[in-house]
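ARCHIVE CARD
CATEGORY: sequence design from structure
SOURCE FIELD: tokenized fold
FIELD CONTENT:
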């Protein structure tokens, strides 16, 4: 079935003003068209921003517990339609069904968490130094937010942004990736069904080139939350800084797993397979590097290679599939180009290295799981984000050398260490310059109740998700209130 997708503006599903459209294609089978989607322009953005501005005052004055209740109802709708939406994620994005369902579960988890924040948007009350005076801080919404999201988590990442933005009292213009627009549409449809007032959440489809930058720079947009490439994120950050806008950017990663000589190799291999080839390597937290102690390097590499060789490519809806396609032809060519770069740099290609076009995979963008060995830390395949099923394996002399190798990249999102030594794990968690550190687990699998984000070129501004320093900090600003009921002028720091 081909979906006829529309924009969602001021509580109504509407066609794009220009009438132009584009297709959303199944990356595992290019003969399968998922949806026909509006190729929106600046006029559509203007309509959505106008609606969000109009709805803002009423929404910010809606008590936060009431806002939270709507989000909690959305969570219940997502639970009931999880299978439907997870199947759509697999069909439109390509990840295997268990991961597609996990994508939706993360959106559900975020809805429950942020819906409950409606009764927890806490400030601070402190004693005053003067008599008959009290002091407190409160959170207040910022205004109208532009939310710009990628294709690799087409329900989870929008949920990371939409739910905290709404519970905080902001209104939203949401521009999803043009590669997964049908998933975004279904998500918004379910949230709207929960009883969201018109104009509070608006959805505009289109390309980043045509409307993304225009939306972010719009004078009536008060803040921007972006997830995507480092190049685009840095450009948006410079632009928003010049316009005095709030912005948060969650960007790329070049994440690594350290395998020490005392590690359980079976567990480390399992983590490296999941981190490197789960979601076909298309996660910002994917483990695209494995740094292995020289004492166990050859043994680890042998088991890792043999395990990767058993991975099965195919349609993500089939239970027999381990690895799905990359998202599109452009990404496939980028990954294949990096394989050529690795060969030219002198890395040893152990397995994979080619497009896979056999049988049912002949109509999709499939690449064999690829492992390079003897990779030097400064090689491009060990420094640059590839976003595909390629893992570089590098030898380290010991813990200090391994940590140095992990940190010597432009990114700092996620890292992991496999060791049975509590002292080594303590040193690693202290010295690894990444926003996330895993001990005896892979680099992927963040939970929503803690902040998500990285250092260096992996992130700018506030973190995503929950906990202290998470998304609520992004979508609120602090207001401090002093109330003097003494009936006379009191002078702080002067009156005693």
């Amino acid at each position: 079935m081909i979906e006829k997708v529309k924009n969602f503006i001021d509580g109504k599903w509407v066609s794009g003003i220009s009438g132009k459209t584009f297709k959303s294609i199944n990356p595992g089978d290019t003969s399968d068209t998922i949806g026909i989607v509006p190729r929106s322009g600046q006029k559509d953005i203007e309509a959505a921003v106008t609606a969000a501005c109009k709805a803002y005052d009423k929404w910010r004055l809606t008590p936060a517990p009431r806002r939270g209740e709507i989000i909690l109802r959305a969570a219940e709708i997502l639970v009931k339609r999880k299978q439907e939406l997870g199947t759509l994620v697999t069909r439109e994005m390509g990840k295997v069904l268990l991961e597609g369902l996990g994508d939706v579960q993360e959106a559900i988890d975020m809805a429950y968490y942020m819906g409950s924040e409606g009764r927890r948007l806490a400030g601070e009350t402190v004693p005053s130094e003067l008599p008959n005076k009290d002091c407190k801080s409160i959170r207040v919404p910022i205004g109208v937010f532009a939310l710009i999201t990628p294709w690799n988590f087409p329900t989870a990442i929008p949920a990371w942004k939409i739910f905290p933005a709404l519970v905080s009292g902001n209104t939203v213009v949401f521009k999803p990736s043009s590669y997964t627009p049908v998933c975004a549409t279904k998500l918004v449809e379910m949230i709207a069904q929960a009883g969201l007032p018109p104009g509070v959440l608006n959805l505009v489809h289109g390309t980043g080139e045509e409307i993304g930058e225009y939306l972010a720079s719009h004078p009536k947009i008060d803040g921007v939350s972006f997830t995507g490439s480092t190049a685009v994120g840095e450009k948006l950050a410079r632009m928003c800084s010049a316009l005095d806008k709030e912005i948060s950017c969650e960007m790329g990663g070049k994440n690594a797993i350290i395998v020490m000589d005392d590690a359980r190799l079976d567990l480390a291999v399992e983590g490296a397979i999941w981190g490197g080839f789960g979601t076909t390597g298309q996660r910002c937290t994917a483990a695209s590097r494995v740094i292995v102690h020289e004492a166990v390097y050859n043994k680890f590499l042998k088991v890792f290679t043999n395990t990767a060789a058993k991975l099965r490519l195919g349609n993500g809806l089939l239970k027999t599939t381990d690895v799905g396609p990359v998202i599109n032809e452009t990404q496939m060519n980028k990954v294949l180009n990096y394989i050529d770069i690795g060969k030219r740099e002198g890395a040893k290609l152990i397995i994979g290295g080619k497009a896979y076009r056999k049988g049912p995979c002949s109509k999709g963008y499939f690449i064999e799981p690829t492992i390079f060995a003897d990779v030097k830390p400064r090689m491009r395949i060990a420094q640059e984000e590839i976003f595909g099923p390629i893992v570089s394996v590098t030898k380290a002399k010991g813990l200090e050398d391994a940590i140095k190798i992990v940190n010597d990249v432009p990114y700092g999102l996620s890292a992991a260490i496999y060791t049975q030594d509590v002292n080594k794990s303590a040193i690693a968690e202290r010295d690894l310059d990444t926003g996330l550190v895993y001990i005896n687990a892979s680099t992927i699998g963040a939970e929503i109740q803690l902040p998500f984000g990285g250092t260096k070129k992996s992130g700018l501004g506030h973190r995503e998700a929950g906990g202290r320093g998470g998304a609520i900090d992004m979508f609120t600003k602090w207001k401090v209130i002093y109330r003097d009921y003494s009936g006379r002028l009191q002078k702080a720091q002067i009156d005693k």
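CARD ANNOTATION: The domain at 3-251+458-481 is CATH 3.40.605.10 (Aldehyde Dehydrogenase; Chain A, domain 1). The longest strand covers residues 133-141.
SHELF: design records, drawer C
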